[in-house]
């Protein structure tokens, strides 16, 4: 088995909980260094044109759900991991395109009992480029809450 940095060893099968028994992992063998992947493979949605990849923004910008957006662009919302609805809310797709000065989305409008004051919004950049027609493409980025925590963001 191969594990990424920060990935949990316990991969409890679906339908079971940690209380259903003891799961153990024993490493039998000698670690073998592996070379990095020779070719980068983008997320499967990128080649289909469903999603574009964009670089991390040059500056870090955060806001709470109570304040208006300080900049236009894609914003990723998350709540503290200890929040009762954290597993429901803290998903990579929990993103919104918000224009500067506008309010962030209220999760209560979507049936989630989460106060806007509990949400930390992180700016993922203004990657929207006007097309020749004048329309803007809206970019959704695959954001990892775990990776952000590791980077201290």
Brief description of this entry?
The chain is largely without helices or strands and 153 residues long.
Describe the structure.
- With 153 residues, the protein is mostly loops.
- It is 7% helix and 11% strand.
- It has a four-stranded antiparallel β-sheet with strand order 1-4-2-3, with no helix packed on it.
- The longest helix is centred in the last third of the chain and has 6 residues, at 145-150.
- The chain is extended, with a radius of gyration of 19 Å.
- The two termini are 30 Å apart.
Structural class: little secondary structure
Number of strands: 4
Which residue ranges are poorly predicted, with pLDDT under 50 across at least 5 consecutive positions? none
Task: Name the helicity range.
Answer: under 10%
- The spatial strand order of the largest sheet comes to 1-4-2-3
Total DSSP helices? 2
Average pLDDT rating: 75
Radius of gyration: 19 Å
What would the principal axes of the Cα set say about the shape?
Answer: extended
Task: Give the strand content.
Answer: 5-15%
- Please provide the ordered H/E string of secondary-structure elements: EEHEEH
Largest beta-sheet characterization? 4 strands, antiparallel
* Cα-to-Cα separation, first versus last residue: 30 Å
Features:
153 residues; little secondary structure; 4-stranded antiparallel β-sheet; 4 strands; 11% strand
Helices and strands in order, then pairings?
Blueprint: E1 62-64, E2 73-78, H1 86-89, E3 95-98, E4 120-123, H2 145-150
Antiparallel strand pairs: 1-4, 2-3, 2-4
